Amino acid sequence: MRGFVTIFNELADSISEEALEKMPYLHAAITETLRLYPAVPVDAKICFSDDTLPDGFSVRKGDMVCYLPYAMGRMKLIWGDDTEEYKPERWLDENGEFRKESPFKFTAFQAGPRICLGKEFAYRQMKIFSAVLLHCFEFKLSDEKKPVNYRTMINLHIDGGLHIRTFHRHGN
Description:
Helix content: 25-40%
Structural class: alpha+beta
GO molecular function: heme binding; iron ion binding; monooxygenase activity; oxidoreductase activity, acting on paired donors, with incorporation or reduction of molecular oxygen
Number of helices: 6
Distance between the termini: 11 Å
Organism: Acer negundo
Largest sheet: 2 strands, antiparallel
Order of helices and strands: HHHEEEEHHHEEEE
Number of strands: 8
């Protein structure tokens, strides 16, 4: 029997760029996850010069401006009444194609001149990783009744970890 590492590597190598482009639902599911659970839940910037924000608020050079991607991903004003619902379909158009939102609305990768240069690479890696793992394994929470609580730090953490059970999918 071949080792898991060999199987994973072969499967990951077999996923072409064309195949990745034909995974709009997976792209939507990853984006919806990042909307609700951004890796960086709180972010701050220092003003380099006096400026006026889009809402008319004035900031001065040296001021710190913070924004909260975690909270923004849950705002009804931004995402609608179903904001708390995990709904990858919100990212798909009527043809099932991925529909981008403004990076100022979906801030997981920041926006403007500070937008993450590795955004497309990160999506590519997340898609490959997800496709390989979901092809080979089924995942279940160890205790489905235990609440999952998050800790806001520099990165979003799950308090006490996320304990899961994995099951090998047959035929892999």
